[in-house]
Amino acid sequence: xxxxxxxxxxxxxxxxxxxxxxxxxxxxxxxxxxxxxxxxxxxxxxxxxxxxxxxxxxxxxxxxxxxxxxxxxxxxxxxxxxxxxxxxxxxxxxxxxxxxxxxxxxxxxxxxxxxxxxxxxxxxxxxxxxxxxxxxxxxxxxxxxxxxxxxxxxxxxxxxxxxxxxxxxxxxxxxxxxxxxxxxxxxxxxxxxxxxxxxxxxxxxxxxxxxxxxxxxxxxxxxxxxxxxxxxxxxxxxxxxxxxxxxxxxxxxxxxxxxxxxxxxxxxxxxxxxxxxxxxxxxxxxxxxxxxxxxxxxxxxxxxxxxxxxxxxxxxxxxxx
Amino acid sequence: xxxxxxxxxxxxxxxxxxxxxxxxxxxxxxxxxxxxxxxxxxxxxxxxxxxxxxxxxxxxxxxxxxxxxxxxxxxxxxxxxxxxxxxxxxxxxxxxxxxxxxxxxxxxxxxxxxxxxxxxxxxxxxxxxxxxxxxxxxxxxxxxxxxxxxxxxxxxxxxxxxxxxxxxxxxxxxxxxxxxxxxxxxxxxxxxxxxxxxxxxxxxxxxxxxxxxxxxxxxxxxxxxxxxxxxxxxxxxxxxxxxxxxxxxxxxxxxxxxxxxxxxxxxxxxxxxxxxxxxxxxxxxxxxxxxxxxxxxxxxxxxxxxxxxxxxxxx
Lengths: 321, 315
Ligand SMILES: Nc1ncnc2c1ncn2[C@@H]1O[C@H](COP(=O)(O)OP(=O)(O)OP(=O)(O)O)[C@@H](O)[C@H]1O
Ligand SMILES: [Mg+2]
Prior knowledge:
Chain A has helices at 47-55, 82-88, 110-121, 126-139, 145-149, 158-170, 188-205, 216-222, 240-245, 250-257, 298-302, and strands spanning 5-16, 19-31, 36-40, 63-72, 75-76, 93-96, 176-180, 208-212, 225-230, 233-239, 308-311, 314-316. With 321 residues, chain A is an alpha/beta fold. Chain B has 315 residues and is mainly alpha-helical. Chain B is 79% helix and 0% strand. Chain B has helices at residues 2-29, 34-42, 47-56, 63-75, 89-93, 97-124, 129-143, 146-161, 174-208, 211-218, 223-260, 266-275, 279-307, 309-312. In chain B, helix 8 crosses helix 9 (174-208). At the A-B interface, helix 2 and helix 3 of A face helix 10 and helix 11 of B.
């Protein structure tokens, strides 16, 4: 099956006083219909900027997409003009954000915000758009959707707002859904519900999901494949199962070792990765992870390692492993 | 909502009571009364005659009694007689009210209709030459005293257009009426306009950074739709509050503007009355202005509630 979303060689920079910040560098991946791809990585590694680049919502200036292509069902979004891109947003590629508390407009009813999306992309009456809003709220399992549609965001809990966001994002049945840390701001039980919901809707509607998170537990439960980002670059890619079982890149090895394991016994310390992420406006010449890597050799300081296939369906960018 | 309105009405009464006490006392702290001024200006020096005037006007009574007389009269719709013209205060004030009301209304309208759009433009075009120019102009408008601005406007009219926007009781045409009211109203409203512009700009910039604006863009909405349906609605909330406060300032500006443009409204009349220590006139005029300001503020608060569901649904 041909992938619905094909990203290749995507690079995004920010022009700042402190120099050029390379937030996303040469990132490629693809997602098939009904598949979930997770993007993981530490805070500041460029996950959100990758997502916003796909939507072409990078604040510009100072941001700029400098290279690459983003194909949704064959159409390269980066080649479209702004009106053309606006038609794609919401109808072909939609996004939900990290903060359900602030992502909805406080002065408009939830129903109206969903209906707005529908009437924007589909030639339907106001009445039909409102009916769709209620239907979508019902779809994301919000009880009493007729009443809830007339409510304002502040009258809903965080989990409910995030469901409403999902309802809005999926109202026009986009081919691709980008979820940027959709559950980080929610408490654990609600997290599971929201993730289940995204999973179910994905199967039902055949949406390709890009799930951004730094929670490896979430990845293990929900993603078919994953890519690991470090300092703006993709450093590893493969099926979730494979990567968890046998990570190639020392960075992912470190991340996996830093997860607390049940039954590891008392007194065993969690391993952490020493050092900090390098500044994106002042990256080292070689591998960005080398300064923190215990396996690093001389070559790592010299040149950026290319992404190599380590096993079928599993690639990593490391000189050593 | 009803409970909130009632509470606000109660607060209004308290405020008005405070204003009445304050203006009553202030007037009597200021040296001299109507008798002194009559005697000074007419050059009379018969102390017995002066005492007679003071007694006739009830100015020798204890302050509390004087105050009670005033308020009780006010409650019965009896505003007393002007010391100067000896006509009923109400008859003196009533014909002047529509003039000032028109001026104030137009000034506020001018301030909102220029301040909000220019503020939005300035924010949307942040850091362009347009933004710099609008900011510079608003700064100039804020720092110009209205008497000076009024004189400048008058001079400009005489110099370049060869006409004077003089007050005319019955203007011949709509255009003449607009000129007659519009020019002074714009002069007095310019300050508020500049303030509203700056506030709209900063509030808009703040709102444009919010997550829900990004959400609106991610839906595929056009920039105008994002700016007007999503951002502006949120950005005007603080502006609404300031409109209430500006109404009070407007009367200060109107005193000057009515004088400069020679308009027979209540604001200029107030200064005249203060000069004569015309107590009933001043007290009642100030109460009248206070009632307007307090009412506008109540309307503004109710409007705020109407726009913001977070407040409407809580109270
Ligand atoms: N407006 C901007 N100007 C300059 N640099 C920026 C700007 N916005 C983002 N960046 C840079 O882009 C980098 C990537 O940010 P991004 O938000 O994508 O990280 P993230 O992986 O989503 O992190 P988190 O897990 O905290 O959400 C950051 O390190 C930041 O320095
Ligand atoms: Mg992020």
